[in-house]
Design brief:
heterodimer; A: 254 residues; alpha/beta; 6-stranded mixed sheet; 3-stranded antiparallel sheet; 10 helices; globular; B: 432 residues; mainly alpha; two-stranded antiparallel ribbon; 71% helix; 1% strand; elongated
């Protein structure tokens, strides 16, 4: 029996300022796997995640999460944005940020209670950040900040996790903590999609890879797609003509 | 109109107005400051002016509902234009805000010159005394609504301000909230402008919240403190302007708010200038003391730890400095209980605390030199100066990491033994 499909995109196209970033992306990712998205800078890796989260608008195509449209599946998705995407001088504590993970089930006005606090504390404990719970988030190292973001996602208790460069700029100890955590999440049946920039580790970390460069170059089990030919195709330069013509076509429209 | 708490309406109504505007500005200003929207606040406050003038022209009786309603409409139109510019061109928000601010304000001032409506200067520079009963009722209503929305929706608003992408992943209607926030911001500006004037509204929006931001690391507290600062500045500014003949209310309120900010800027317990200066001074005093502890250690080490006492002359020679300087350094050690002296001019002995710290500093120095030469490929003659700085900063946790990374070394790159402070007691260096 085929595994349930956690994330499926069909003909997904996203443009920024009329320039295509993703162009006709088709992927289907089975549930319960640790999946890496790799590709060169500007390949649209982060955009893919943002498109799934509905943070950037689609120009075309559709997305289904566990067979449902985004609006219905949202409570089942956990999101870990890039660390640089927020202001770390913001007046919130480590606990406050972890607690945000529990807000999805609370609606707009309900306040988090003991159950939510316990969930957030358990998530912080898992990433080793509970001792820092009352610290303002600016007084943390890069690796610690990343772990706080991870704790927030854990507190969400989702089925599909989308993580944007969780290994960027973290120390070796944090990287080991994170990968152990991701493997444990997989064991509990979670699906984790990780945007990753380091090819050296990609092979060891992930069950499945999406090789992305504006188009999907390949998508499949790591052993099958981690080949010199496909990697060369992924990193061998952008699809210049396609990119330019698609941009020209978009500019020509009103 | 009735008296309130023994105050005539001519006094308590302006006071109430400035109290309300202080609270509203403090609450909304907290969001403005953490979202780095200060310029947007300034632009909105200038953008409302054409609406105010239109209200005065269309309603000679100065119906506050008409005046404030049109001001609100003008402010929102300004924000809409900013959005239109940023989404259709490659201009960023600051340029768009600059353009919109100037256009709206220029239109407002020009219309004033043409129609010359009476009483409009009150809105330009603020005149709390001109607040009428119906103005006050409307201000109360608007402030109550805005404050209620800010408090009830504080949680989603904070998540959205901190991390908009994550907020939408929670299913929060981010766009709706952005619009609601724009409406709240404009409403607060419109309420405040009567007392402080359109030009200085942004001062009330930003200054109290900025002061609160320097005082606390929790957003809820920041809102509370900002509202208190805003209200206090409003009331105090109004009272001062009423007491002194001819003092304008708006500028005085803004000055009081700035005074509060200045006080916090200097005296805030953690983020204040004085606190930072004190911390820096304490740290450099500690570094200086630690260097004397190190000198004592090195003198003792040079004579293979024979005898515990060290003379000032030995320290001065070791540090290549005058006897006066060495005496001062030693006195600092005595003051902190890290060393004691036999009489005025006798030898210096380290206390157990001083000895432990001395060994730690020497250990840190040598560990760091070893780390640089072994792991960072420094040459052995390049590492001393760096170690002079780092030795004072290494915490116990980092030291453990270094020791593990270097496989628990016993000597530094120059061959000197690395002390083990936890096993090495006073005068028993041989146990090392």
């Amino acid at each position: 029996m085929a595994a349930e499909i956690a994330l499926e995109t069909h003909d997904l196209t996203v443009t920024y300022h009329k320039r295509p970033v993703l162009y006709g992306v088709d992927i289907a990712l089975p549930a319960g796997e640790l999946i890496g998205v790799v590709g060169p800078n500007g390949a649209g890796k982060s955009t893919l995640i943002k498109a799934v989260m509905g943070v950037v608008p689609l120009t075309g195509g559709w997305i289904k999460v566990f067979g449902q449209p985004l609006a219905k599946a949202l409570p089942r998705i956990g999101y870990v944005p890039q660390r640089e995407s927020v202001d770390w001088d913001f007046p919130v504590t480590v606990m406050d940020v972890a607690l945000m993970g529990t807000f999805g089930g609370l609606g707009l006005v309900h306040r988090p209670g003991t159950a939510e606090r316990e969930r957030a504390a358990a998530a912080l404990e898992k990433v080793g950040m509970l001792p820092y719970a009352n610290r303002q988030i600016g007084n943390l190292s890069g690796g610690q900040q990343q772990r706080v973001f991870l704790a927030r996602a854990l507190a969400q208790d989702s089925d599909l996790y989308l993580m944007d460069e969780p290994f960027a700029g973290v120390d070796a100890a944090t990287e080991a903590t994170i990968i152990a955590l991701l493997k444990e999440m997989r064991q509990r049946g979670k699906t984790v999609l990780v945007v990753h920039h380091d090819l050296h580790t990609a092979r060891a970390y992930f069950d499945r890879l999406v090789l992305l460069n504006m188009r999907v170059v390949a998508c499949g089990p790591t052993a099958e797609v981690f080949t010199p030919e496909l990697l060369q195709k992924t990193y061998g330069g952008r699809l210049t003509i396609l990119s330019e013509m698609a941009a020209a076509a978009a500019q020509a429209e009103p | 109109m009735i008296d309130f708490l023994g105050m005539p309406p001519g006094l308590w109504m302006p006071l109430a107005a400035s109290l309300l505007l202080g609270i509203g500005c403090g609450l909304i200003g907290s969001f403005v400051v953490v979202r780095r929207m200060a310029l947007a606040g300034d632009a909105v406050s200038h953008a409302v002016l054409p609406g105010v003038v239109a209200g005065f022209v269309l309603s000679p009786s100065r119906n506050p509902l008409v005046v404030l309603g049109l001001a609100l409409a003008a402010g929102l139109l300004g924000m809409l234009l900013v959005r239109a510019i940023t989404t259709t061109t490659r201009l960023k928000e600051d340029a768009a805000l600059g353009i919109v601010l100037a256009v709206f304000f220029a239109v407002g001032i020009s219309t004033i010159s043409v129609y010359q409506p009476s009483g409009v200067t009150a809105f330009l520079y603020g005149q709390a005394a001109a607040v009428s009963w119906s103005d006050l009722l409307l201000m109360t209503g608007v402030t109550a609504l805005v404050a209620a929305a800010a408090v009830v929706f504080a949680r989603p608003l904070v998540v959205m301000s901190f991390d908009a992408g994550f907020a939408s992943s929670l299913g929060y209607p981010v766009r709706l909230f952005e619009r609601m926030f724009a409406l709240m911001l404009t409403a607060v500006v419109v309420v405040a402008m009567q007392a402080v004037g359109v030009i200085l509204v942004s001062a009330m929006l930003i200054t109290p919240a900025a002061a609160a931001y320097l005082l606390t690391d929790r957003f809820n507290r920041m809102m509370l403190v900002a509202a208190i600062f805003g209200a206090a500045a409003g009331v105090a500014g109004t009272l001062i302007s009423f007491a002194g003949a001819g003092l304008p209310t708006g500028p005085i309120i803004a000055l009081v708010a700035s005074g509060v900010f200045a006080a916090v800027f200097f005296a805030a317990p953690r983020h204040g200038v004085i606190a930072k200066w004190l911390r820096l001074r304490r740290r450099s005093a500690r570094v200086a003391r630690e260097n004397y502890l190190k000198a004592v250690y090195q003198v003792l080490e040079a004579r293979s730890f024979h005898g515990d006492g060290v003379s000032v002359r030995e320290i001065a020679e070791r540090r290549r400095e005058t006897l006066e300087d060495a005496t001062r350094g030693v006195q600092a050690l005595v003051r902190t209980g890290e060393a004691f002296r036999t009489g005025e001019v006798g030898d210096i002995f380290l206390t157990p605390d001083g000895w432990r710290r001395a060994a730690e500093i020497v250990r840190n120095h040598r560990l760091w030199e070893l780390y640089l030469t072994h792991q960072a490929d420094y040459d052995a003659d390049h590492v001393h100066d760096d170690a002079e700085r780092i030795e004072h900063l290494l915490g116990e946790e980092t030291v453990r990491q270094l020791e593990r990374a270097l496989a628990f070394p016993e000597t530094d790159p120059h061959g000197s033994p690395i002390p083990a402070p936890e096993r090495q007691s006073l005068g028993k260096g041989e146990l090392r």
